[in-house]
Amino acid sequence: MFGKDSQKRFKIEHKENIGMSGFKIIVDQETGVNYLLSWNGYAGGITPLLDREGKPIVSSKTL
After folding, report:
1. Cα separations (Å) of 4 from 7, 12, 21, 52, 62?
2. pLDDT score recorded for residue 33
3. What phi and psi values does residue 22 have, to the nearest 5 degrees?
4. DSSP structural state of residue 43
5. Average pLDDT along the chain, 63 residues, taken 10 residues at a time
6. In this protein, which residues make up the domain named DUF6440 (predicted)?
7. Which of 44, 23, 43, 42 is nearest to 34 (CA)?
8. Is 43 in contact with 29 (CB distance < 8 Å)?
9. What residue ranges do the domains of the chain occupy?
């Protein structure tokens, strides 16, 4: 995971900036779980994206 030959674990799927705030959808390529990263100025947070049933949204793994 941390060696020179390893691939990047996280991939940015989508990004939007709105002034000093915005969000990114990030996919963990090892597990396929999608996360929402949002920020406003110097504050921010990250959370897994959930479907209607409350289960994490999982993309197909690419590693």
Report:
1. 8, 20, 33, 39, 18
2. 97
3. 170, -170
4. E
5. 70 95 96 96 96 94 57
6. 9-59
7. 23
8. no
9. 10-48
Q: Is the pTM of the predicted complex or chain greater than 0.90?
A: no
Q: Which residue has the tokens 């396929």?
A: 32
For the chain, how many helices (H) and strands (E)?
A: 0, 4
Report d(CA 5, CA 14) in Å as an integer: 25
Residue with tokens 């406003």: 40
| φ, ψ (nearest 5 deg) of residue 6 | -75, 150
Spell out a b/e string for 18-41, using b for 16 or more CB atoms within 10 Å of the CB, else e. eeeeebbbbbbbeeebbbbbeeee
Q: Which of 61, 20, 62 is nearest to 42 (CA)?
A: 20
Q: Which amino acid is at 15?
A: K
